[in-house]
Amino acid sequence: MTLHQKTALGYAIILALVASLNYLPIPGLVDAEGRTFGIFALDIYDDALHVVSALWALSATLISTRASRMFLILFGALYFLDGLLGCFAGSGFLDLGIFTWGVLDIPLQLKILSSLPHLILGGLALFVGFKR
After folding, report:
1. Which residue of 78, 80, 84, 95 lies most exposed, with the fewest beta carbons within 10 A?
2. Within 13 Å of residue 120, how many CA atoms lie on the same side as its CB?
3. For residue 41, what are the β-bridge partners?
4. What pTM was estimated for this model as a whole?
5. Could you give the number of structural domains in the chain?
6. Where in the sequence is the domain holding 45, given as residue range(s)?
7. Which pLDDT tens digit goes with each residue over 5-55?
């Protein structure tokens, strides 16, 4: 298994875990207001996005190194851009939030904190995807 396939498999696992966060009975994970880690709320659109992304990552892993590399580059670009939009607008495009809620009037610090997962996941995927 190549670096690209191992990384795509790691993303499949991470994204599947993220999709299950709202459904795991782990104390302190989701607060009384339904926010994960007390920062952001994951809804059905987020869960669907993460499940589809996990299946895409797993499929790419099983198909080939080239498919895994393409997944990392495309996924990375989409998630990183979604994170950048989230830093400015407070909502992204991948879960349709920018279309549903528009630009949110929340503190900049919260916008950045809630966008950080997509910035990190997207940035790392791009880094590994462009690595030969």
Report:
1. 84
2. 9
3. 35
4. 0.85
5. 1
6. 3-130
7. 999 999 999 999 988 877 766 666 666 666 666 566 667 788 888 999 999
